[in-house]
Amino acid sequence: MTSRTSYRTLSGTSRLAGVMGWPVSHSKSPRLQGYWLANYAIDGSYMPLPVAPENFETALTSLRDLGFAGVNVTIPFKETAMRACDELTDRAKRIGAVNTVTFAKDGRLLGDNTDGFGFIENLRQEAPDTAFCSGPAVVLGAGGASRAVLVALLDEGCPEIRLANRTRKRADDLAGEINDSRITVIDWPVAPSALENASLVVNTTSLGMVGQPALEIDLTGLPTSALVTDIVYAPLITDLLAQAKDRGNPIVDGLGMLLHQARPGFHKWFGIDPDVTPDLREFVLSTD
Questions:
Q1: Which sequence positions are flagged as catalytic?
Q2: Per-residue pLDDT of the chain (288 residues; tens, 9 = 90+)
Q3: In what order do the strands lie in the sheet with 183-185?
Q4: CB atoms within 10 A of CB 222
Q5: 3-state DSSP call for residue 221?
Q6: pTM of the full predicted structure?
Q7: What pairs with residue 72 in β-bridges?
């Protein structure tokens, strides 16, 4: 506690946060949060914090003792951070990972997972007519991002989720862990008939990302009213989104999920719930 008090005496009212990862140089979070800090004229800083895996827990508590308000955590630390936290939100427990850590005044580490929040808020902003309870959703992938999306969709009242993954066992295991009768595992590759009457298709895999194989899917069974979204944002318009747009489906790219998932942490650390705007999107995507 002494080191934290001394640090804040030296730094005045300035607040510090950052993102921990290994590597972390690719993260857009410092650019994103730096934009908000400047836009709201906040006396604070948000920095990249590369930490070797064997040093993660020591580094996390050291940042707390240095007076940091909190940190985001990215690959490969989301599960490790969960174990290191003293208290977890319900959604972090259900998702099984933490991406946002807040350092409480009493020294406790409070863990949250905002990925599902970011996913839903992105769709609400970009496709405001979306009704998550209006029909089945088809979710592609069974990794950590898929888990966050599944939990979020279930919480929004989605009546049925069809889950597909290249490795069937992984999808079966994920469905079993979440243990909700609304989730049904379907075969990969997804047959056109599995898309019938769906209202939403979500790609949570890395397929279609720059440097990754393409996502090959036949959308002929999908109603043209169904929303198609991809959590990938490099490229911004993936082949899946381009294919869906060409056939008349509404689409939402994945950048907004990244932007919105950052809001809860910024709010906790710096005291403002920031806006996600077109200017912010353009700034985060630029390299200047």
A1: 78
A2: 333 333 333 345 689 999 999 999 989 999 999 999 999 999 999 999 999 999 999 999 999 999 999 999 998 999 999 999 999 999 999 999 999 999 999 999 999 999 999 999 999 999 999 999 999 999 999 999 999 999 999 999 999 999 999 999 999 999 999 999 999 999 999 999 999 999 999 999 999 999 999 999 999 999 999 999 999 999 999 999 999 999 999 999 999 999 999 999 999 999 999 999 999 999 999 976
A3: 183-185, 161-164, 137-140, 200-203, 227-230, 251-252
A4: 24
A5: coil
A6: 0.94
A7: 19, 100
